[in-house]
Description:
This protein is α/β, with parallel strands linked by helices. The protein has helices at about 15-25, 60-75, 140, 155-165, 185-195, 290-320; strands spanning about 5-10, 35, 50, 60, 80, 85-90, 95-100, 105-110, 115-120, 135, 150-155, 170-175, 200, 205-210, 215-225, 230-235, 235-240, 245, 275-280.
Amino acid sequence: MATTHKTRMLIIGSGPAGLTAAIYGARAGLEPIVVQGLQPGGQLTITTDVENYPGFRDVIQGPWLMQEMQAQAEHVGTRMLWDTIVDVDLSGKVFRATGDSGDVYEGDTLVVATGAQAKWLGVPGEQEFSGKGVSACATCDGFFYRGKKVVVIGGGNTAVEEALYLTNHSQDVTLIHRRDSLRSERILQDRLMAHPNITVAWNKAVERFVGDASSGLTGVEVVDTVTGEKSIISADGAFVAIGHAPATELFKGKLPMDASGYLLVEPGTPRTAVPGVFACGDVSDHTYRQAVTAAGTGCMAALDAERYVAERDFARTKAAETA
């Protein structure tokens, strides 16, 4: 039988942004509910070695970090509910979300922390060598390939920025692009072409990732899009940089988005165009996309949600006194 769950702060998404919002919200007495979604814990649950999250001198495991965040959120009073939200109504004074279980979730405030997923090529070897040479985040994993040969796949701003970033760790970076020109901004192209440690493989489409179970990735098989000739580019690490897809389908026509589907927020804040609705983490961040920045915006969302509730309650009290 369907149940209605009520809270002062409803959080959709359970990655670093959502769980940090929950921790702060619970400590503020908002008794938050977190609806975990299809991937409880977010992208860190499929990330093995994490070396750049502050507070840990040694490498930690992504799933362990998210388990600890969830345990902390529950310890301070968060309710974690497993469900997948299929519809939201932001038109009333109370925000309503409906799960595929049939349950309804009502919140005085709503924190959207649904995240974004990296786009993948979908070629053989990509999943097999994920975490063993294949990655979608140079900032996250580039350090593990210091002094090694790496490739970046893509032709937009993200790909060029990741290739440039990787030169901090590698003296042999190859950018693989399926066309004969890049889509990135001109200033980035100029920096790329001028860098002595970057080579561009033009007109090359990735066919598969190659390697073995013991040593991981050893190379990338490509096909020339002009001649059809196949070849293998040797590499210890390969970074797929063809963009991200924010999980914002639920909010189309209900919250403003940019052309790529990221939720728009007031600059420097997590506030959306709907008062009481806040967006945090990768769902509104197409630039940094790091666990630590997601957690930071989750904190901001909770603080703003607490202020929103306090101001609303104060206004209601004053109105009642003068009635």
